[in-house]
Amino acid sequence: MSEQKKGLGLATQIFIGLILGIAFGYFFPEYGKNLKPLGDAFIRMIKMIVVPLIFSSLIMGIAGTGDFKKLGRLGGKAILWFEFATTLALVVGLVVVNVLKPGLGVVITNGNSDAIAEAAKKSINHIDMLVNLIPTNIIDAMARQDMLQIIVFSCFFGVAAAAIGKNGRPVIDFATTVANVMFKFTHYVMLLAPIGIFGSIAYTVSTYGLEMLFPLGKLILSLYLALIIFITLVIVIASITVRVNFFHLLRALKEPLILAFSTAASEAALPIAMDKLEKFGVPKHIVTFVLPLGYTFNLDGSTLYSALAVVFISQVYGMPFPIETQVLMLITLMLSTKGIAAVPGASLIVIAGTAAAFGLPVEGIAIILGVDRILDMARTACNVTGNCIAAVVVARWEKELPDDVLQIAYKQDYDD
Predict the structure, then answer these.
(1) Domain boundaries, the chain
(2) Which GO annotations describe the biological process of this protein (predicted)?
């Protein structure tokens, strides 16, 4: 049994910051609106960590294998699981929205016409997206925090460093040192998380008000319920498939999940999620490869939300949307939601494009814009959960997370 820790744990501190932020924003809205810089500063500090951490960790992990064949195998297994999870998310979203029918009885409003018009004009070109996987300038890719381009460059760089033998050792050692420093850096930044969360949530509540939840309460309930059902199903299926108790994993991930939910920013949870997965026993080269890849190709929460939102719009306007058309929409979303993370306002664009493609009024997006922040918090936490589960599944498929390591992880979990 480990030595008893004194004081409140970080997850508890973050949760307290979340509750206090809600209360402060509700009771003192004129002051809460001024706290936005606290949340923005914390998110900027997290984003400051992500690029050097991903770059150095990937080089360290990949150089340890020096094997492009293994990388291809890791990528193939990850994509296979991503596709399964995405399909399941879409199916769950469709079932819940058809059963609960959250769009019935909702009053149509004009909403933010500028945002709607902007979303309707945009589209996602997947051919260009594939070409853009290759960076022309890695410094520019880092400045834009384009994770896929950073991953592609780091993979080539890591394999090349391993291929030149002892001459590449100083580079690998340097990357290892940088990765270790960045994890320590993350620890320092996370000490400020409760303050950042307090400021961010206080600003959100004071700006939009809790009363915004009531008219669309059924939509919010539907999404949250769908996400809970989806996560439960994924955990059960993954547990049976790879013989891992994923409920232990959720307990180990409580800090990054609360952080993702509070900030509605996946980047905020990435460094600490990587650290928790490694402590859980997942090898560093799998964590640093699968997690960033999942942030682009495995947005389970956002995918589920897209399916639910499109059907919701059809219900609001009372337009027929038969099940065979919904299945066709499901197939469309399976393709259109891949690789959208790097696109600003991607979920809005996907929903607008899908609604227009199936003859639904794009203006229906206006109805959900007011509560999008509340919806975004839940789907971001789901995205992080899905990617962490994927990393564990791939590690088990690769036979790099043996049972004895898991037993140690479970024991540490209970000791903590």
Answers:
(1) 10-415
(2) dicarboxylic acid transport
